[in-house]
Every structure is written in structure tokens, then in C-alpha cells.
């Protein structure tokens, strides 16, 4: 039985920047009315906003560290129901990196306390390391396009396409680096405008033994007319993608003809009905789509509100959910909406439950740092300041243990997710930290009713946490429900 065309598209090393190719590719498909559903292979939000803007579709998440094969296949099928093409983004593990003589330089040491804290966290609690990289002599790209693709390719039957910088070709040959097995094609970036595609096709075929699907040149085809045939190019601003579209179509057709593994259908029913109000506007917009869909499938009604525009949270709300986002451009409007802040504090005083991540968690604090040294007043629900790190890296996979019971989970529960390296909490009270591990107590702060986290949690991958949304049993007695809270 034919299924949706499905591709894995990933880098082979830490120095290749995949985003120029993704921009011209996704915008080109969108302009031609091709619905491409992208999946990030890590349950975090790096590149989330860009992918949504370029493709016109909300990115989804798959994660071989966090999710089971059955969960990944289920989330993939749900996400591709109306798609013309599915692309899973991430990074491949190099083949035989230990014995191939590849370069493997030690990572740079953290320069400041914020980075040192992230590095310590990765060493103490990371369950899944980033794939070893055989090419690290060039500066690393500031952000990758997701996690490891190897297991996902097997679980989902993906055709494999790789992204590779032309600057790495010499190192590959000189150090006899082996490419991952089973690659169906390769995209080159950082192409020399003086070298025609025909030469790259020959070089890649001889040196790497992989068909060349496309090449990204920096510059407009008019300036590259000596080497490019415009009929084979897609253009986006200062980027030109030359590609063998016929080869790409053959790879796509092959992937669609490959049978998709089938699993038994899971019925989600927590025997409860509730209303979850999510903050969604120009500031807050990063949510795991599979989590929201599973909440609805289990009986939840999802309603939206805007901390920028609305004066109050929606009536009859059972849980307020504030996702991550970027507050910098809208800081003044966010700070000036006092009515919404009062509504949120009143909701908490009445015993309402709140969950927030990243920027949403910072918004719950008394103060929120929207850029380095620039603070605005937050909602004032928690006695802390949500701070920005001046330097930040990739999201880190972590497992944290709750030291106190909340509405989301009991004390001792292990929560898995990705630590947002852009935010940290500066508490004003020693009672707000909820994490058991010494030194990292404030990665999640709050109390029985309010949970604010810099660890992004995909509830779809952790059904026990998802079920707690539907549990209406009070976690604190009414007499103590307001005394443990900080509300101005």
C-alpha cells in the first residue's frame, strides 16, 4: 500500500548550516502549493518559527530518545494526513567515525557561568548525547536542525538525503571519512560560484559515491549565468538552489511506494472533560502539536487567548498553558496589559492550575528579562525573575526529578525533556525550586498549582503527565491553596 512520500534530510557534521537550503526549498514548495509537513527530530523549538513561516505548516516533533517507535509512527501518521510530502530534519551519525581517521577535536570549554551551568547539566543528567562528529575543524553552526535521525529512518522507512558543505569535501577525502550507509542523495551548500553544477556532480559521484540532488549558491542566477541554467533553479532572495528535480522526484516516488509499518491503534480516554486555555499570539506560539491533539482526543477543549490583546483569560478554564516564544519585539505591549495579569493572578488565587515553559514561564515571574539587561514587569504569579542568557547553545536532553508534589506530577516523578538554554530563573524565595538534583533546583519552579519550567516537555510522549491534566483532585487543601502562592 502506498503512503505519503517521506524523507529524512540531515547534516553529517556540526559545521554545515542547513538553514539556507531549508529556506529556499520550503519557500519554493510553498510557492508551488505543495504542502510539506516538517518534523524536528528533537522535542525542542530550535528553528520552529522559521520552518512554520517558510512552509506555511506548523512543524511537528519526533524524537528517538524521548518517544517509542510506536509513538513516533503514530505521531507521524497523524501529522501527514493531509501532506503532499513529509521531511524529517536532523543529523546523521557518521559511519565508522572511530576508525576512519576523521578529525575529532575536543569541544570548546564554556566561557561564562551560564554556559558552564549548561555543560554541567549535560554531563550530570543528559541521557542522550549528540552524535559524535567526524568533522569539527570548521566553526560549528550556531544551531542544528534537530536530533539524531538514524533510528527514525528505520522506524519510519525514510529515504535518506544529506546536507553537506563544500568546505568539508577536502577533509572527507584527506581523512577517509565514511558517510552513513544508505544515503539516497546529497545537497551541497556554500558552493563556489565559479564552479558549475556539472563539475560538482562529477566530483561528488567520484569522491563520495552518492548522487548529487542539489547545490545552494549564494547569489542570484543573473550573477551566476556563466555556470547555471535558470530552468533548473529555485531562487529565494540571495540564495539560488540548482537541483536535479528528476532525481529528487524518483527518490520521493520510491519513498511513497515503501510500505509504512502499522501499529495497533491507541485509544486515549482519561474519562474527563476540561478546558485548556493556551496563550497564542505574536509572542507565545511554541507548542507541541501532538500534545495538543492528544489532549483534544482525550476530551479536552482547547481555547486560545492573547496576553498581548485580551483583558482576561477565557471563562471556565481548568488549566492555563503558556508556551515558549520570543517577547522582545512586543515587550511594551506585554508589560502594559495589566488587566490580563490581574485576571491570571485572580485565577490562581481561586485555585486554578497553570503550566508554562520558556518565555511563558518567564512571563509568570515578577520580572521578565526580554533582552540583556532590559526588564519588564511580568504577571507576578511567582517570586522570581525570568532571565535571558547572553549566550546559548543547543537544547539539552535532560531527566529531572521533582522534589515536591504539584498538580502535574507527584514528588519523585522523573520528567524528561529538553532544557531551553536561553532562559534561567533568578528566585526570590528558596521555596520555589521544584527539582531534586542539587545545583539545578530552579530549572522548574512553582508550587502545587503553578509549574514554570525551562525544560520543554512533550506531554504526548509522557502519557502519565498528560493524564494529570484530567485529574481534578486538589493537590493542596483549600486552607493552604493561597498561602503557598506569591501573588501581588
UniProtKB/TrEMBL annotation:
Alphabetized SUPFAM superfamilies for the sequence: Class I glutamine amidotransferase-like
InterPro entries for this protein: CbiA/CobB_synth, Class_I_gatase-like, GATase_3
Biased composition (Basic and acidic residues): 113-123
A biological process term (GO) from this entry: cobalamin biosynthetic process
Annotated pathway: Cofactor biosynthesis; adenosylcobalamin biosynthesis
Keywords: Cobalamin biosynthesis, Glutamine amidotransferase
Domain CobB/CobQ-like glutamine amidotransferase positions: 275-390
Source taxon at top rank: Bacteria
Disordered, as annotated region: 96-124
Gene Ontology molecular function terms on file: cobyrinic acid a,c-diamide synthase activity
Protein's name in the database: Cobyrinic acid A,C-diamide synthase
Amino acid at each position: 500500500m502506498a503512503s505519503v512520500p517521506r524523507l529524512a534530510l540531515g547534516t553529517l557534521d556540526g559545521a554545515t548550516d542547513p538553514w539556507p537550503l531549508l529556506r529556499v526549498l520550503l519557500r519554493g514548495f510553498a510557492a508551488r502549493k505543495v504542502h510539506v509537513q516538517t518534523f524536528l527530530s528533537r522535542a525542542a523549538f530550535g528553528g520552529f518559527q522559521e520552518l512554520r513561516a517558510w512552509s506555511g505548516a506548523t512543524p511537528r516533533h519526533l524524537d528517538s530518545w524521548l518517544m517509542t517507535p510506536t509513538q513516533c509512527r503514530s505521531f507521524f501518521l497523524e501529522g501527514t494526513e493531509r501532506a503532499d510530502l513529509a521531511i524529517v530534519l536532523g543529523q546523521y551519525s557518521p559511519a565508522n567515525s572511530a576508525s576512519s581517521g576523521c578529525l575529532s577535536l575536543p569541544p570548546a570549554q564554556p566561557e561564562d557561568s551560564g554556559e558552564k551551568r549548561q555543560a554541567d547539566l549535560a554531563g550530570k543528567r543528559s541521557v542522550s548525547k549528540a552524535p559524535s562528529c567526524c568533522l569539527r575543524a570548521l566553526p560549528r553552526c550556531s544551531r542544528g536542525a534537530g536530533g539524531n535521525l538514524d533510528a527514525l529512518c528505520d522506524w519510519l522507512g525514510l529515504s535518506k538525503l544529506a546536507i553537506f558543505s563544500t568546505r568539508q569535501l577536502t577533509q572527507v577525502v584527506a581523512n577517509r571519512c565514511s558517510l552513513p550507509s544508505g544515503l539516497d542523495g546529497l545537497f551541497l551548500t556554500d558552493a563556489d560560484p565559479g564552479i558549475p553544477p556539472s563539475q560538482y556532480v562529477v566530483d561528488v559521484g567520484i569522491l563520495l559515491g552518492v548522487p548529487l540532488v542539489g547545490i545552494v549558491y549564494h547569489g542570484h542566477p543573473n550573477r551566476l549565468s556563466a555556470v547555471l541554467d535558470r530552468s533548473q533553479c529555485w531562487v529565494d532572495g540571495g540564495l539560488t538552489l540548482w537541483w536535479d528535480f528528476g532525481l529528487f522526484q524518483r527518490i520521493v516516488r520510491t519513498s511513497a511506494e515503501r510500505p509504512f509499518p502499522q501499529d495497533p491503534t491507541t485509544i486515549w480516554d482519561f474519562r474527563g472533560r476540561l478546558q485548556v486555555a493556551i496563550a497564542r499570539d505574536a509572542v507565545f506560539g511554541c507548542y507541541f502539536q501532538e500534545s495538543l491533539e492528544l489532549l483534544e482526543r482525550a476530551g479536552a477543549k482547547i481555547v486560545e487567548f492573547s496576553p498581548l490583546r485580551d483583558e482576561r483569560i477565557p471563562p471556565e478554564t481548568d488549566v492555563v498553558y503558556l508556551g515558549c516564544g520570543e517577547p522582545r519585539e512586543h515587550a511594551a505591549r506585554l508589560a502594559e496589559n495589566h488587566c490580563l495579569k490581574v485576571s491570571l493572578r485572580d485565577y490562581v488565587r481561586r485555585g486554578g492550575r497553570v503550566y508554562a515553559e520558556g518565555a511563558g514561564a518567564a512571563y509568570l515571574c515578577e520580572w521578565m528579562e526580554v533582552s540583556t539587561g532590559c526588564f519588564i514587569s511580568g504577571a507576578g504569579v511567582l517570586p522570581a525573575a525570568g532571565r535571558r542568557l547572553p549566550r546559548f547553545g543547543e537544547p539539552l536532553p535532560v531527566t529531572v526529578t521533582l522534589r515536591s508534589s504539584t498538580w502535574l506530577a507527584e514528588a519523585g516523578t522523573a520528567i524528561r525533556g529538553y532544557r531551553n538554554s536561553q532562559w534561567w530563573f533568578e528566585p526570590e524565595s528558596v521555596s520555589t525550586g521544584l527539582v531534586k538534583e542539587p545545583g539545578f533546583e530552579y530549572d522548574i519552579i512553582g508550587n502545587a498549582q503553578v509549574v514554570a519550567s525551562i525544560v520543554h516537555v512533550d506531554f504526548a510522549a509522557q502519557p502519565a503527565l498528560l493524564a494529570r491534566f484530567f485529574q481534578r483532585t486538589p493537590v493542596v487543601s483549600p486552607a493552604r491553596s493561597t498561602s503557598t502562592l506569591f501573588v501581588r
